[in-house]
Amino acid sequence: MTTTIGLVLGALLAIACVLYVARPFLREPVARVDRLDELDELERRRLALVEERDRAADALRELEFDHRTGKVSDDDYRALVGPLRRRVAQAQRALEPRGEDRNRVRAAG
C-alpha cells in the first residue's frame, strides 16, 4: 500500500514538474510591436551607400569570376572592371567618417 501511495505521489510530482516547465510554452504570446524604428535621413543615406557598395562589389566579384572562367573576354573585362572598382571606391569613401566624425571614431575605438 505504501509503495502504491509513493508511486502515485511520484507520478503527481512528475506531472507537476512537467506542467511547470511547459507553462511558458503553453501560454499565448504577448503581442508586441515588431516594427523597426523609422530611419532618419542620415541613416537612410548610409544604408543606401552600403547597399550600393555591396552591389558594386558583388558585380565586381562576379565579373572577375566570369573572366577567370573564360565567360568574359579580356577586352570586355578591361572595359567593365574600372567603372565597377570606381563605384566600390566612391561608396566606400562616402561611408568613411570625415573630420570631426573621424576624431570621434578614433577616440571611441
Describe this structure in words.
This protein has a domain at 38-108. 78% of the residues lie in helices and 0% in strands. It contains four helices and no strands.
What distinguishing features does this structure have?
mainly alpha, 4 helices, 78% helix, disordered C terminus
The computed structural class is mainly alpha
Spatial separation of the terminal alpha carbons: 72 Å
The sequence of SSEs as H and E is HHHH
Question: What profile does the largest beta sheet have?
Answer: none
Helix count? Answer: 4
Uncertain parts:
104-109
Total number of strands: 0
Shape: elongated
Q: What fraction of residues sit in β-strands?
A: under 5%
Helix content: over 70%
Gyration radius, rounded: 30 Å
Average pLDDT over all residues: 85
Strand-helix topology:
Blueprint: H1 2-26, H2 41-68, H3 74-95, H4 99-108
Short synopsis of the structure:
This protein has helices at 2-26, 41-68, 74-95, 99-108.
